[in-house]
Specification:
Number of domains: 2
Shape: globular
CATH architecture of the largest domain: Alpha-Beta Barrel
Strand content: 15-25%
Distance between the termini: 31 Å
Order of helices and strands: EEEHHEHHHHEHEHEHHEHEHEHEHEHHHE
Structural class: alpha/beta
């Protein structure tokens, strides 16, 4: 099957951009102080000879995507860079035509081969995890979708119907999706505005007493200062997962600081999410945590909106970690575990009731998994990879177009705001936060929307 709207990739090129952090980000026992952006530009041509370029960008995220005792973060970063280069080189040889979903799935099938090539070239002691493969190639995926929308002078989310796609969703997700297309699982306009989830990292200062030396760069530094400056109503709290007393006290301390700050600005309602970054040994840890938080502060407990990936990301290897009891209390979502349809269905069997989408896992896979999760009535959220500049706008466009997503996470403004400056001039409502919200209505242009 083919259509005049199908495109061929004419060229793809890649660049890497270093991004220093203004403050360290600590999560899951690891600390990040710098990263690189993977920037990819793709030119496509449709059946009528029209040509346009698209762009994709994503931070490397190697510390999150490839935690390892065998491969150092520096080596993992170099390997992911090489993975991205190989994928872009293959895209330049990808002489088929199609819709971005099909073009990218053709490349995605080769990712394991690309990763094996990297392993051999670099003599790596272990294979590159699937999550790291997806992160490294996500800018290419985004650029193809962006270029496709631009060549048709449409928003990319409005090119997901039978008018443009060659297959219905049953081709990708099974018979229960027969006759359905991705336009039924995305919206034709972005949400007008969305609350911003602000990250409270494990090393982030809550009060002035927590700051050994101020950065003094004009940005807020304590949690109370951030709440006052941006009018925050959504806070994501990073926890250790292996120190119950610390985790409980951290939430209670965040509650104390937040209550004072919100009372000062007259805000009665706000929520938390809690993220253990898969460090909990089992569900009992989560249950004890919830019980102790509730005992320490019923209001803090009530404000917990959902729990993110409490136990190991390898669901098959650790199938004993069932979340049913915790999910009866609060939604429990998978993040690191969500790689494909198989992992989503397995997570459901193990008691997970929600999913965390990330632009860094690829536009194509994310759109398909969003349809599957919506069909299963799961709790939905879109999360960040400390995405600055263009990559934050991409992440926000996903959140604003997937129905049921209530908020967007964005923490580059806290840790690596440098790349935001250029984009803030064009989209001030996305980077200058007021009343804790971002103006996602701005993301309605051609391509990915910006």
């Amino acid at each position: 099957m083919s259509k005049d709207t199908d495109v061929q990739i004419l060229s793809a090129r890649i660049e890497f951009e270093p991004v220093p952090f203004r403050a360290p980000l600590k999560f899951g026992g690891r600390t990040v102080t710098e990263t690189h952006l993977i920037n990819v530009t793709v030119e496509v041509e449709d059946g009528k000879g029209n040509r346009k370029s698209g762009f994709g960008s994503m931070p490397m995220g190697n510390v999150w995507a490839w935690p390892s005792s065998e491969v150092t973060p520096d080596v993992a970063e170099k390997a992911m860079m090489r993975m991205a280069e190989i994928a872009v080189a293959q895209a330049n040889r990808h002489d088929v035509t199609g819709h971005p979903i099909d073009l990218m799935l053709g490349l995605i099938k080769q990712y394991s081969d690309f990763a094996e090539q990297v392993k051999q070239e670099m003599s790596l002691p272990e294979a590159m995890p699937r999550l790291a493969q997806l992160v490294a190639t996500s800018p290419l995926d985004a650029a193809v979708h962006d270029a496709y929308g631009r060549v048709h002078q449409q928003n990319s989310y409005n090119t997901l119907s039978s008018e443009y796609m060659n297959h219905d969703l049953s081709h990708y997700l099974g018979d229960q999706f027969r006759g359905e297309y991705l336009d039924q699982y995305t919206t034709r306009e972005p949400q007008t505005q969305m609350p911003l989830y602000h990250l409270v990292g494990a090393a982030d200062p809550l009060t002035e007493a927590d700051i050994p030396k101020r950065i003094n760069d004009g940005l807020p530094e304590t949690l109370g200062e951030w709440i006052e400056a941006d009018g925050l109503t959504h806070l994501k709290i990073k926890l250790s997962g292996d120190n119950l007393d610390w985790d409980v006290q951290r939430v209670l301390s965040v509650e104390d600081v937040t209550v004072a700050a919100q009372n000062k600005r007259g805000c009665p309602d706000w929520v938390y999410s809690v993220d253990f970054n898969e460090k909990c040994e089992n569900v009992e840890y989560v249950l004890d945590f919830l019980q102790q938080v509730k005992s320490g502060s019923a209001s803090a407990f009530d404000r917990i909106q959902y729990i993110e990936q409490p136990t190991h990301r390898d669901l098959k290897k650790h199938s004993e970690n069932k979340m049913h009891r915790a999910a009866e209390i609060k939604p429990v979502v998978i993040d690191e575990s969500l790689l494909d349809l198989e992992s989503l269905l397995l997570a459901q069997e193990l008691g997970y009731t929600g999913v965390a989408f990330k632009a860094c896992k690829g536009q194509t896979e994310t759109l398909l998994l969003a349809a599957a999760a919506i069909k299963q009535n799961m709790f939905l959220c879109v999360q960040d990879l400390t995405c600055p500049g263009y990559s934050f706008l991409h992440s926000a466009s996903l959140a604003a177009r997937i129905p049921g997503v209530a908020a967007i996470e964005g923490n580059a403004r806290q840790y690596c705001p440098g790349p935001n400056e250029e984009w803030a001039k064009k989209y001030p409502g996305m980077f200058n936060i007021t009343q804790g919200t971002v103006e996602t209505a701005l993301l309605n242009g051609n391509g990915l929307g910006f």
